[in-house]
Amino acid sequence: MDILFHIHLLLSTPIATFDKAVNDANGSELAANTYHQTTKLILEGQSANFVSNWGKEYNVQGLVSELEQLVLNQSAIEASQLQTAVQQKITGYLKENFVCNDVNSSLLLAIALLQTFIQANYTGPAPNLAFPKTSDRLKQTVLQLLSCSGQPAYELCDYPICLLLSLILVDLLTGDVPNNAESGVAIPIIDRSSLVPFQSICLWWKARAIMCQLSLLHEPAGDAPVVASSIYSSIDLVASILADQVKTLVSENTQRELYTIFYLENAKCSLAINTEHFCLPSLIKAQKLTNFQFVLTGARAKRTKYQSVAHANLVVLAKSDDSLIPTDTDDAKVGNRTDLPQSLDLNHEMLLEKPVFESIGAEPLDQQIYKKSKITDENGFNEDTLLPTALRQENIPILLRELDPNSQPKLNNLDDIQLLLRLYTLRQTSPAKDPLVEIELSALVTRLIFDGQDTDTKDWSIFSRSLWERSIIETTKAKTVERGLLQMQALVEELGLKIKTTSLPTDADAENSSSDNGMTRMKYIHQLPFLPRWNLDATLAEKYMSMGILRSAVEIYERLQMPCEAALCYAAVGDEKEAERILEQRIITNPTDCRAFSILGDIKQDPELWEKAWSLGKYVNAKNSLGKYYFNVKKDNVTALKHLNDSLKQYPLSFETWYFYGCVALEHGNMTVAAEAFSRCVSLEDDHALSWSNLSAAYVELGKLKQAHNCLQKAVKSDSQKNWRIWENYMMVSMKCNEWDDVLLCCQNLLKLKKDNNSMSIIDLPVIEKLVELLITSEYDPENQRLTHFQTSCIDFVCVQLPQVITNEPRCWKLVSKVELWRKRPWAALENVEKAYRSILHNPDLDVDEKVWNDTVDACEDLVAAYESLGEMEGRMGDLVCKDWKYKARSTIKSLMSKGKKTWDGSEGWERLLEMRNDM
Predict the structure, then answer these.
(1) Gene3D superfamilies this protein is in (predicted)?
(2) pLDDT at 184
(3) Helix spans in 803-884 (H)
(4) What is the per-residue pLDDT for 377?
């Protein structure tokens, strides 16, 4: 059955495993299948040979000649019409020669074309492809067909026609061919009941081809990200492939592996289209499928050669379940692993190559608990997070607790990819240059690089990607920046592609010696985020730029023919004139480069340039810049909303644009639009606290208090930055909804968040007064009935937490006194009335401000009344609360009179004091 071959193509199954699977299924029948040898050729990494033979057999030279003639004869027409003509010519050729005759062979051809393009531009070594050469004009037209919404495809990629042919083939096979280059593509609907296995496989390869196309762009744009996301969003795609008749032909491990790589590719897609907050659910499902266990924890380690005492360090403990999905170690050893990239030594006079750990939990357990006394068993370990963390030794899973952190076992390759994808997700969802995040990333990379002791079992793609990520981290540190830069240069040159210059000594025969490594390098290319060779070079240039090495960065950008990046380099260092010159020259040579127009508009702040970029190719960043310009400069919210709306119609997956759109709508007062915008924000990123808070603000204005309250509940759960304004909004909305338990919770958190502020703004007195009123109107009888949660929490807040931060606010002390009196603790109530009086008595304005003087007289009157009413009550130890209350009352009055006699003798307050003294 042909579906069996396609399943192994999706998995990039090693040849030995593939042959065994075919023999086990039905050797004589399947091995004689027409597609058996073609499938083996692709699995062996010989896609270029298959494409070359196909080109000769079906006269691709004739097709290219026709396209060249078409480009030559229609040089005067508009570019969009030329692109449509070229696309229709290719579509007609492929439909006539392949799709109408044999859809299975058509899919194999699409796969081979895609794999050839990937090898030529991503993995290397450069394929030996006998394919008709195209003129610069035809190549430019092909690249324009691969562009999306004004985002130009990279101009120096090799064999772009292979990718275009592959995309058109899968479009024909799935029935989603656009009529012209400008029209959108159909969004596939994945329905298990209506899908057949072959159609599902075509959709999967279509998503892979789209991901490859998106990697040619500077950033995702157009309908392509939506199409890829919709394909990867439903697991029914895999379920339809593994229909009942197919399940009997493949093992349970193969089925599990198919589901796993689907979830991994789903996470990769989310990373590529900037919806990285959707990665975690897919990664959790992949982890459960492979039964992968890992944890981030702490251990003492030595990091330098002369270090005598080990210090705390993060370490990732990880172990695979090798019984579920094989690591293909036998197949990996076939090539003796001579193709693995070289890991450069650190060669530092002080730093060790990797940390040397002591055993986990070397510190006594009671000391660990003592130092982290606030940590409970519930939050000590949570598996369903991006980076599960064990805060104490007993929180580490038993299987991982037994591992030696200096010599951990080899991981399954798919588990390695899970760690890499989590690394990318953590980086994209965390603040840039966060020190703690950098340490966590280093721990992940260290676990990947020093994965087992046998280098023969390492996969080329995973190992090289791990080295690359280590280099990214090391180039941010002074002591490791040298090795980081040299390693990055070595990895770029390791690809064996058409690199114009090299920075390290290379072996002249290196490319020839690695010519047979295409199979090993392509194994996991579709599960790892695409990194084209020019992106590697561009990242190296960014590192030079960050270190102030402008000339080297610009040289790389010029070599890569990336004028926009070179212009941004100059603009970043303040040389805007040179940046403008580069962009203007680019526009002259390529008048359809929307990105160049938009960046030039950003530098000059010229709306006409942004409008030009939009008119040329619907470039969404141009509309975003127009929106910001009219909002910040022109103060025209209506026009800003219009431009942002145009941008979102073109690319609706941009979280940043939706958020800005909502903020502009809030300021403009259009709450319906604001609610829609922030609803889209939380659907794209459901843990963004500010989006939930802003959505609640829109609902409040629309009169939807219940929805606003629910939004704020989610906002405070997602509020990792502890934003007191969110809690304050939550408190106000909860009051309107009469949710007094939530109001009390807000007051408690606000007290903690704002207690460093010396002003009394940390306390909202009317709210606390309302809480106290609700509390003391209830019955207090702890001997005969259990206190409610509200009563217990409110008593703790008012009588324990509040007195720790208030010092000079008499109203607060009086509130505490009321609660203490309600609790039948008259001695405590009297103490707080005394504190209220002292807080106002020490006011420095007492001698100059009559209002303060009168308030002090009021407080004195309250204290005298408290002495009179509470003094003879039963005290804490069975005696009276204040036996000599009359004496204290007279002393209080006398003291205040002596303090104010010089200034306030004869005033209204003074007369009241005289009256109180006479009454006593």
Answers:
(1) Tetratricopeptide repeat domain
(2) 52
(3) 810-822, 826-841, 850-870
(4) 43
Q: Of 420, 408, 399, nearest to 453 (Cα)?
A: 408
* pLDDT recorded at residue 190: 77
The edge-to-edge listing of strands for the beta sheet with 293-304 is 311-319, 293-304, 351-357
DSSP β-bridge partners for residue 312: 300
Given a cut of 50, whether residue 244 has pLDDT beyond it is yes
Which residues contact residue 648 at a Cβ distance below 8 angstroms, ignoring those fewer than 6 apart?
Answer: 654, 657, 658, 661
Q: Which residues pair with 297 in a beta bridge?
A: 315
Q: Which stretches of 528-654 are assigned E, i.e. beta strand?
A: none
DSSP strand pairing (293-304 vs 351-357): antiparallel
The strand pairing partners of 389, in sequence order, are 296
What confidence tier does 380 reach under pLDDT thresholds 50, 70, 90?
low
Residue 356 contacts residue 302 (beta carbons within 8 Å): yes
The first and second tokens of residue 256, run together, are 């599990």
Type of residue found at 555: E
Identify the burial level of 635 via C-beta atoms within 10 angstroms of its C-beta, where 0-12 means exposed, 13-18 middle and 19 or more buried.
exposed
In the DSSP assignment, the letter for residue 383 is S
**Angle 870-875-877 from CA coordinates, rounded to 5°:** 175
Cα angle for residues 790, 791, 793 (degrees, 5° grid):
65
pLDDT at 879 (0 to 100): 85
Q: What single letter denotes the amino acid at residue 648?
A: L
Nearest to 118 by CA among 29, 34, 209: 209
Query: Cα-atom radius of gyration of the chain, to the nearest Å?
Result: 35
Instruction: Answer for the pair 86, 145: CB distance below 8 angstroms, yes or no.
Output: yes
Asked if 582 contacts 138 with a C-beta cutoff of 8 angstroms, the reply is no
Stretch 204-222: mean pLDDT = 95
- The full set of domain ranges for the chain reads 1-44, 48-183, 185-288, 291-488, 806-920
Distance CA 882, CA 817 (A): 16
pLDDT at 177 (0 to 100): 52
3 state DSSP class of 351: strand
- Helix, strand or coil, per DSSP, at residue 296: strand
DSSP state letters, 58-115: TTHHHHHHHHHHHHHHTTTS-HHHHHHHHHHHHHHHHIIIIITT-HHHHHHHHHHHHH
pLDDT score, position 635: 95
For the cut 70, the answer to whether the pLDDT of residue 202 exceeds it is yes
Look up residue 425 and give its two tokens.
């997700």
Check pLDDT > 90 for residue 843: no
- Please count the other Cβ atoms lying within 10 Å of the Cβ belonging to residue 427: 20
Q: What is the mean pLDDT of residues 500-507?
A: 39
Distance CA 505, CA 606 (A): 47
Q: What is the DSSP letter of 342?
A: P
CB neighbour class for 79 (10 Å; exposed up to 12, middle 13-18, buried from 19): middle
Residue 226 in this model has a pLDDT that exceeds 60: yes
Structure tokens at 521: 């390098």
The CA-based angle 703-708-709, given to 5 degrees, is 125
Question: Torsions phi, psi of 904, nearest 5?
Answer: -110, 15
Other beta carbons less than 10 A from residue 535's beta carbon: 17
What backbone phi and psi angles, to 5 degrees, belong to 746? -65, -45
Among 202-206, 722-726, 783-787, the minimum mean pLDDT is found in 783-787
Within 13 Å and on the Cβ side, how many CA atoms surround 573?
18
Other beta carbons within 10 angstroms of residue 730's beta carbon come to 27
